[in-house]
Structure formats: structure tokens, C-alpha cells
Amino acid sequence: MSEYTITVIKNENPKSKPASDELKFGKYFTDHMFIQDYNMEKGWHNARIIPYQPVALDPAAMIFHYGQTVFEGLKAYRTKDNEIQLFRPNKNMERLNRSNDRICIPPIDEEFAIKAIKHLVKIDSDWIPAAEGTSLYIRPFIIATEPYLGVNPSATYQFIVILSPVGAYYESGINPVKIAVENNYVRAVKGGTGEAKTAGNYASSLKAQEVVAKEGYAQVLWLDGLEKKYIEEVGSMNVFFKIDGKVITPQLNGSILEGVTRNSVIEMLKHWDIPVVERKISMQEIYNAYESGKLEEAFGSGTAAVISPIGELAWGEKKIYINNGETGELSHKLYDTLTGIQYGKVEDPFGWIVKV
Ligand code: COI
């Protein structure tokens, strides 16, 4: 790792903080941000923590035209003993570099980035809320900054990290969400950018989400882009189904995002000797399991979404009601254990916690 040198300029005009019960997802931002530049001569350089402020870019900056950008999402948690901890930040930085590779952005120094994130979180630690279900969401992202309209990788970039105190991602809080299976649009195809955390995947999901939101659905469940048969993910979360005592999640195939929470769920299930398989699973199989009374639970997993039980799935005209619209026993156990580890309430047998 390169030597850890970073300039810090403190914000002399800190903002007032929102009350814990006002927190939604990603609406408020803290007093500082991390920023680092890249150019061909110096590589990544000039790491600094500065007052939170707008980013000034040339209107020709390539991020605006071709969307050459990647991002991550992780959280800092305040424990009951007032310690601050991160959850598997190394996984996020590894994935950031995989996304970088896919989008032709130069790799970051993962260890340096984790140190910088810890440093930033420490400086803004007063912003980490303490109320149940709240945390400090950390959003690292990289943008292409070269002013140029040709379609090729930018010669310059900025790596930025911002922080946002957050509550639950969904309006329904930790109550089960209603999801509509998307039959019209697709999110990603094999060979595309589905497994990279890049803005285009999210921009292209907005239309489908807008349509189903009018019918009261929180999100869409994406099917594979070729046959529109196999389940992929929800966009803000990976999905799991408990059928006849076994847990099934779509196997990673190049178009599904490799979620850190997804991996943690699989690890927890294995630790408890609950059968879990990663394989292709079709919507028809889910419907058949529902009709035969074998679909016991469904839930999503993600940093923002945590463990979000799914209470209803709409698949065209067909409606699938899961566990009477209530949170299932397994979803509950996973939620309690995961958040228990994250908030330092239960022991972390996996070595996932990194203290700030
Ligand atoms: C996260 O869970 O951190 C994500 O990046 C999902 C985002 C769409 C809110």
C-alpha cells in the first residue's frame, strides 16, 4: 500500500443534524467528504478530507456524457457502548475494483481507501445516529472528469466518499415489501454491466419502477434478459426464497450484482446448517411452490435494504402472497443476527466487523 498521507480541512460551519426519527434513506449529508484525484502521470494522488461541498466539473466531463462511473454502499454502525464499526469494508472495496475493471476506471488502493473511509467516519462520527435501525451510509464513488466528447476511457478521475445518516430504505420500514415481477423491461444481460455497480444499471431501472410504483409496488423483480424466465435480482437487493425447508438464491451469472449482504446471508445459513443453494430459479418454479403450499418465505438482502421480507409478488395477473404478508421466522433470524453483529449486540463469529 502507498503511504497513508491525507490533508484534512475541517468544516468551520457544521450543519445542524436531523432528528433520528426524521431519517429516511440518503436525504441528509454530513459535514465532510473525502476526495482524491487521478491522472496518468501521478496515478491516484492528492487525497483530502474537506468540507462537504459541490463538485465543480467541466460540462464536457465524460461522466456527464457516457456515464463512466462506479459506486459502492456500506455502513458505519454505532454500538451500545458507543463504539463505531464497519461491516466487511474490504468486500466493498474489492467489488469497487471489479466494477472499475468493467468500466475501464483505474483501480484504487483498497487498503488506502478503507483507511480514508475510517478517517472520514471518525471526523463525522457525531453524525452516526444511535436509534434502532439507523446507521451512517457510506457512499464511495468514482467519476470520469476529463473534458472530452470522444467515446473512450477518461484520462482523469475523482474518487469521492460522502456520508449520509439513514433510516430504513423502504417506506414500509422492516415490514414486508410488495414487489412486481418485471415482464417488459430488462435490467441486464450476460456480457453487459449487470454485475458492476455502475450508474447506468440504475438509470435504466427507473422506468420499470415508475410504472409499478403507481400500482403500489416498492420495486421490480428482474428476470433474465434473454428468456425473461429466471429470477435475477431486485436492483437494490438480491433475493432469496425458502421453499420446503431449503433456501434458494439465484446463482451469480455475470448479470447479477454480487451483494456483500447476499454473501453474508449464505455464510450465516451455512453456519446454522440450513440448506442453501445458489442456482437458476424460474418464476414458474416460485409460482408452483406457492400453489403447492411450499413457498415459505421470500426476502431481499442488501446494504441499504438489510434483510427485507417480501410479502407479495405480482407476476402479471398472478399474485403470490407469502407468509400472510408477515415477516417469516428465518427472515427475522437473519435480520436479528446480521444487525446484531453490525451493531455489536451479538458476537461476530465470522470476523466481519472492522472497528473505526
Ligand atoms: C446498497 O444497498 O448499498 C445499494 O447500493 C443499493 C442502492 C440502490 C441503494
UniProtKB/TrEMBL annotation:
GO molecular function, one term: branched-chain-amino-acid transaminase activity
Keyword list, A-Z: Amino-acid biosynthesis, Aminotransferase, Branched-chain amino acid biosynthesis, Pyridoxal phosphate, Transferase
Pathway: Amino-acid biosynthesis; L-isoleucine biosynthesis; L-isoleucine from 2-oxobutanoate: step 4/4; Amino-acid biosynthesis; L-leucine biosynthesis; L-leucine from 3-methyl-2-oxobutanoate: step 4/4; Amino-acid biosynthesis; L-valine biosynthesis; L-valine from pyruvate: step 4/4
Cofactor: pyridoxal 5'-phosphate
Entry EC no(s): 2.6.1.42
Catalytic activity reported: L-isoleucine + 2-oxoglutarate = (S)-3-methyl-2-oxopentanoate + L-glutamate; L-valine + 2-oxoglutarate = 3-methyl-2-oxobutanoate + L-glutamate; L-leucine + 2-oxoglutarate = 4-methyl-2-oxopentanoate + L-glutamate
InterPro entries linked: Aminotrans_IV, Aminotrans_IV_CS, Aminotransferase-like, B_amino_transII, BCAT-like_C, BCAT-like_N, BCAT_family
Record-stated family: Belongs to the class-IV pyridoxal-phosphate-dependent aminotransferase family.
NCBIfam families for the chain: ilvE_II (TIGR01123), PRK13357.1 (NF009897)
Name of the protein: Branched-chain-amino-acid aminotransferase
Species: Gracilibacillus marinus
